[in-house]
Write a structure and sequence with these properties.
The structure holds 2 protein chains of 2 kinds. Chain A has 12 helices and no strands. Chain A is mainly α. The radius of gyration of chain A is 22 Å and the shape is elongated. Classes of the chains: A mainly alpha, B mainly alpha.
């Protein structure tokens, strides 16, 4: 394992970055040099320097502190959302793939509709009707992402079902839920984990993107998308306000992307 | 052909009907009474009489089924209702903003196409070459760069530091340069990846090997053996790319304050103008479904072997 990591410099850099990010997110309260919410009108729009490493915003809040506080709002929710999506689609996908027939037809027709509508449109429509706020954003992302995963997992179940060991376990008398849990799900895990890690970056981008559009997290929150939106309005006089949060989104997404791609090539997926 | 067309059309109508029901139900789930919200928005204290008047005017005091049926009948006549805010027909509001968005999407599509087709095919044909590795690195970065941040950075570079292009608004041709570049940069990443992967798949076919073994020249082999076989996956990615182009153009229009549908829709979400949100989403979703329908027809034309039901259920 260690040797493998040493050989893959990009991968280990990405993993290290993720590790530091997680730790920084968990211990953000101790690491922040300033209060991320407290305006300080004496230090408005200061350029990055020794006192404020990433500069300050239009209310004099330290950008570095806000970026650190934002980890728990921009990165951690992505795991929760993806976890929920995975749980739902693992359940529906295995049922649909295993039992087939009517249930399969029904589920696939429903997913057809959800797959056809672009995620962002569906998300915006749902938020448009249900109102702003992170809860609605999570609900909207769940609704617009589950279908794709159900289809992928269903396809994977079909592949696993063709394996000889499935027949032998069937002959040994295993069937139904036990069959699914003991024999199908363990064989799906590598693929599903790979897809999930590849999609972490997309979920992070979507979450921050919705906040950036002003329909996700709302202003005092140090969510990176919100900070980027503030930064856009001060682009001409304080470009660092938008640069650093955006760079963080980029770096985080990139790290997860690198890990996902590596996993994919290890598991030889398409 | 006729039978196929009929079954596809039936499916299309059914999906559209379900879509209308979904959008309508969502509108009912929306918290807050639109009449009260509008009166509050106008600054008036919401008093019972006014609310009741508007509820009656908009038919909000009837049952769900009745409301849905009246709304659907209106819809069939091409009437999308009136905006709560400007009181103009939603249809006119949308159509006046359709042009710039379509222009934006078409031009970014063309640019994406021009960049990604040669790169995708070349990297697949010259696997593990320098070009391939460079492009691969570029796509990893491209897949993880936030579209909105890229747009802001381009604004900063070419609008503020080196003011070549206007960074806000629309109208002249120069307003299109930065939005189109941003969208194409992000979209070509997906395109290059997909084109590369299906070119790799097609070039492993045995008949290609056989043709190469027969000593066919590349300029005959590639167009008539390889590219012909790639037509089907190519139609797929072109046909299914419309939603993602639209998704990016929503974001880009808002970054650049570009006067198109995406910006309008989001503005109306802020002001909770339900008929407009409804109208926009219905129109876009039907556009997407119709594009999918046409893509299916193109499959049929491009490859008579396509067995549709199989295609549908297997992926």
């Amino acid at each position: 394992m260690i040797g493998f990591l040493l050989k893959n410099k990009t991968l280990s850099a990405a993993l290290l970055f993720i590790l530091f990010l997680m730790l920084a997110g968990m211990f953000a309260a101790w690491l922040q040099p300033y209060d991320p919410y407290q305006p300080n009108y004496d230090a408005k729009l200061q350029t990055p320097g020794f006192k404020h490493l990433f500069g300050t915003d239009y209310l004099g809040r330290d950008i570095l502190s806000r970026v650190l506080a934002g980890i728990s709002q921009s990165v951690f929710p992505a795991f929760v959302v993806l976890g929920l999506v995975m749980a739902i689609s693992l359940l529906l996908g295995t049922l649909s793939g295993y039992y087939g027939r009517r249930l399969d037809m029904l589920l696939m027709s429903i997913t057809d509709i959800f797959v056809a509508v672009p995620n962002i449109l569906l998300t915006i429509v749902i938020i448009g009707f249900l109102g702003f706020g992170m809860e609605n954003v999570y609900a909207a992302i769940l609704l617009s992402w589950w279908a794709k995963y159900v289809r992928i997992i269903r396809g994977l179940v079909h592949d696993v079902k063709k394996e000889p060991f499935m027949l032998s376990s069937r002959v040994s008398g295993s069937f139904g839920i036990v069959h699914i849990v003991r024999h199908i799900v363990p064989n799906l895990i590598p693929q599903v984990v790979t897809i999930a890690i590849l999609d972490v970056s997309r979920v992070i981008l979507t979450l921050s993107g919705l906040s950036f559009l002003g329909i996700g997290a709302q202003p005092p929150s140090p969510e990176w998308g919100v900070m980027l939106l503030d930064g856009k309005n001060y682009l001409q006089i304080a470009p660092w306000m938008g640069f650093f949060p955006g760079l963080m989104i980029f770096a985080t997404a990139c790290a997860f992307q690198i890990c996902g791609e590596k996993l994919r090539s290890v598991f030889k997926l398409k | 052909m006729v039978q196929y067309l009929a079954s596809r059309l039936g499916m299309l109508v059914l999906t559209l009907l379900l879509l209308t029901l979904f959008v309508f139900a969502l509108m009912h789930l929306a918290p807050g009474d639109p009449a009260a919200l509008m009166l509050q928005g106008l600054g008036a204290a919401p008093d019972g009489n006014m609310i009741a008047y508007y509820q009656h005017k908009w038919g909000l005091d009837q049952s769900f089924a009745v409301q849905y049926m009246t709304w659907l009948l209106e819809l069939l006549q091409g009437n999308l209702g009136h905006s709560y805010i400007t009181n103009k027909p939603v249809k006119d509001e949308i159509f006046s903003r359709m042009g710039p968005t379509l222009m934006l999407m078409t031009s970014s599509f063309v640019l994406t196409f021009l960049v990604s087709v040669p790169l995708g095919v070349l990297t697949a044909l010259r696997e593990r070459s320098l070009l391939d590795r460079v492009v691969y690195g570029g796509t990893v970065l491209g897949l993880s760069i936030p579209l909105y941040w890229l747009a802001i950075m381009l604004m900063l570079l070419f609008g503020v530091i080196w003011p070549l292009f206007p960074i806000i608004g629309g109208g002249s041709l120069r307003h299109y340069v930065l939005p189109v570049t941003t969208i194409s940069m992000i979209q070509s990443v997906y395109f290059i990846r997909m084109i590369r992967s299906f070119t790799m798949e097609s070039k492993q076919a045995l008949y290609i090997e056989a043709a190469a073994a027969r000593g066919l020249k590349r300029r005959i082999l590639y167009p008539s053996y390889l590219f012909r076989a790639m037509l089907i996956p190519f139609i797929t990615i072109v046909g299914t790319s419309f939603p993602s182009f639209f998704g990016s153009s929503i974001i880009i229009e808002n970054v650049f304050s570009f006067p198109g549908i995406g910006k309008y829709m989001l503005d109306m979400i802020y002001s909770r103008d339900f008929p407009v949100i409804q109208g926009c989403s219905l129109l876009l979703a039907s556009a997407i479904f119709i594009v999918h329908f046409m893509t299916d027809l193109c499959y049929y034309l491009a490859d008579p072997r396509v067995r549709l039901e199989k295609q549908r259920w297997e992926n």
